[in-house]
Structure formats: C-alpha cells, structure tokens
TrEMBL record:
Superkingdom: Bacteria
Protein name: Gliding motility-associated C-terminal domain-containing protein
Length: 387
C-alpha cells in the first residue's frame, strides 16, 4: 500500500513528517512565504512548477525525485549527505544553495538534468556538494556549470555569442576511449594530425546550439604531466560527431602551471561535438626539434619585462635561408619575415587586413609556419599571444 507524507498547511508554512514518499498529483504549491522540507522521496505525477518560497532536501540517506513530470522551485537548499537523486528533470528559478551532498543525475540520460532557469544562480558548491551528472541552463549567455564527479568539483565555464535556449553539461572522470558511464566511445587515437596527445583521464560533455567558448581547468588528478611539460603546450580538443575524430578547439587564454591551471578554447558550436578535453599540438621529431624541445608551441607576452617579449626560435641560425609566417585564427597572414632572427614582438609587418597596426595584434592564438629552405625542413605550431 502506498504511504503518504502527512502535510499540514498553516500560514503558508508546510510541515512534513517522513514516511515512505510524498506522492504529488498536482495539488501542492509553495507560496511566497512558504517553506517545505523533504526528508523522503518525492514522486511527482502532477504540476509542481509554480512554486515560490523555499524548498529543502535534508537527511543522510539518499532522496529520490521521480514521477511523470519535472519539478521546479524558486529557492532550494540541498543537504542530503548521500545525494539527491533525480529520475526526472528539476529546475530552480532563483537560488540553489549547495550545503552537503550532490545532486545526482544519470550520466547516460542527457534529458534528465538539474536546470538553472533564467536568472537562477547557485551558492556553496564544493567537492562535496555539486551536480554529479547533467546540469542545464536556459536563457543564459554566460554560465559556470557546477559539475563534477563523486570526488571533485570540475566546473566548465561557457561564454556564448547570445543567450542559450537550453545548454547542458556533465563531467566524466573516465577515459574517453572507454567511458564506463556512456555507451559511446571517443577513441583518443582517432584524431587529426594537428593533435599530439589527448587526455585519457577526463572529459566534459556540453550540448548547446549557440557558438561558444569554454574554459576548463586541470589539477594534479588530471595528470597532464603525462601530456605536456608546459601549460602553453595544451589546447582544448573536441570529438567531432560528423568526422568521428578529435579536432583542435584551440587556446585563446590559459593560466597556472602544468600541475594546476585553466585554458579557454576558441569559439565552436557545442552541438557539433560529443566530448571536450585537453590535448597537445605535436612536437617535430627530427634533429632540429630534438635540439629545440620547445619547438611546437610558444608563449609571447610583449610587455617589456624582458621575459617572452620576442618570439625566440633557437637554432634557426643553422639555416640562414629561413622564413617565418604567422597567421591568425581566420587563416589571414599577419606577419612574414625572411631570414628571421627573433624580431617578432606581437606587431604585424603587413598592410593586408591589419587594422591599427601600431597597437599590436590582439591577444589570442596564432598559427606559425617555419621553413628552413637550405635544410629542406618545415615546421608548424601555435603561438599564444598575451598582452
């Protein structure tokens, strides 16, 4: 026999007494001064989406929310040590306060998510309180998804060209080539030639229909020392659904060191990609590269402090008959120099398509091409310009 919560309404305050579950068939509503506390499961088989006031979920044992219809609250607080489990979508219109325990959604069902609607925000997120599964946003342009796995908060920041009708994100501390939570496989060996290595430790899934950049971070658990020695060697990579391979999503900004830091991609359409993670651009492997292990990616910060003010490519003097060409992310050449001797400091020397040359090239990622004609060698890589 089904058991119900005993509910008493008094001056807009709801008191609940825990039994097996609260079954709602559409007769409940929390008013503006009301408060409702759940210490048991919620089965929602009716409209429960015009709520105001505060709704909280409390206890040590897991609390499960299920039923035929989504739930929606104005203000929420989550204090469920072993997790608030969602079998149906849940939304918040104002504030979600993470106190203790995760909001957990099935990672293999993207249509079940915890949604931050319109002007909604969150507080208190940490390693022990976050969304372990899919978080979603509606009518937002910029958002930091408070996602992670059971052990760590691993947010993804999305910055879109315009507001998203709906965007969803989840984090996976799993090998993309053989994830345990998804039926899909994103083999890290299936990649374009511009990619050297790809992380086998973690990835994010992001869906959205608006061009966006993403910022993701790493920490010691990410083990990026297995991929690179410097943070400027890293790029964001994505598994392209149509091409069924990993491609470069770029690096427009980064910070930190190889143990802990962040990186921002170039703009891309999230719906075109099934997974996002860290990659590197390959280093050349011939004699010139062996003698110059930094060849491949360069970091330039021409601020006059004497550090990384000029693009210095050591060893190019071995081929006096050389050339350097630099291209922006649109493929337009912005710098060209024959017999290059470390002169480039962030300013274009070309008239074509360069506006306000005197203020220097804008921050961002650039592609370079080096040719050593007398040695019949050619190299390419990325240059990250930071002002």
């Amino acid at each position: 026999m089904k058991q119900f919560l005993n509910i008493a309404f008094l001056l807009g305050v709801t008191l609940t007494y825990a039994q097996t579950a609260l079954y709602n068939s559409g007769n409940l509503r929390v008013h503006s001064t009301g408060q409702m506390g759940f210490h048991t499961d919620l089965v929602n088989n009716g409209t429960f989406d015009a709520n105001q006031g505060l709704v909280g979920f409390y206890g040590v044992a897991p609390i499960r929310v299920s039923g035929a219809f989504p739930t929606q609250f104005q203000d929420m607080e989550i204090m469920v040590a072993n997790g608030l489990l969602l079998d149906t979508p849940m939304g918040v219109t104002n504030n979600a306060n993470f106190i203790d325990g995760d909001i957990i959604t099935p990672k293999n069902i993207i249509d079940v998510y915890f949604e931050f609607m319109d002007d909604a925000f969150f507080t208190g997120e940490n390693d022990l309180a976050k969304v372990n599964g899919f978080a979603a946003v509606s009518n937002k342009q910029f958002f930091s998804f408070p996602v992670g796995d059971e052990d760590q908060l691993r947010p993804l920041v999305m910055d879109s060209d315009r507001t998203n009708e709906l965007a969803r994100c989840a984090y996976f501390f799993e090998n993309p080539s053989n994830p345990t939570s998804l039926p899909e496989r994103f083999d890290i060996d299936d990649k374009v030639r511009d990619i050297g290595g790809i992380s086998s430790n973690e990835f994010w899934v992001l869906q959205g229909s608006v061009p966006s950049t993403v910022t993701i971070s790493w920490n010691p658990r990410s083990n990026l020392t297995a991929l690179a020695t410097l943070p400027e060697d890293l790029v964001v990579v994505g598994y392209n659904i149509a091409a069924r391979q990993w491609v470069v999503l770029g690096n427009t900004a980064f910070g930190g060191d190889i143990q802990q830091g962040f990186i921002t991609s170039e703009k891309f359409l999230p719906n075109d990609f099934a997974a996002i993670t860290f990659g590197t651009v390959p280093l050349p492997t011939d004699t010139f590269a062996v003698n110059n292990p930094t060849l491949g990616n360069y970091f330039l910060s021409p601020d006059g402090d004497g550090i990384n003010d000029f693009l210095v490519i050591e060893g190019m003097e071995a081929s006096p008959n050389n050339s350097l060409r630099i291209f922006n992310r649109f493929g337009q050449m912005v710098y060209e120099k024959f017999n290059y001797t470390n002169e480039f400091n962030g300013f274009s020397n070309l008239d074509n398509l360069v506006i306000n040359r005197e203020i220097g090239l804008p921050e961002g990622v650039y592609f370079y091409l080096v040719t050593l004609d007398d040695l019949e060698l050619e190299y390419q890589g990325f240059l990250f310009l930071n002002r």
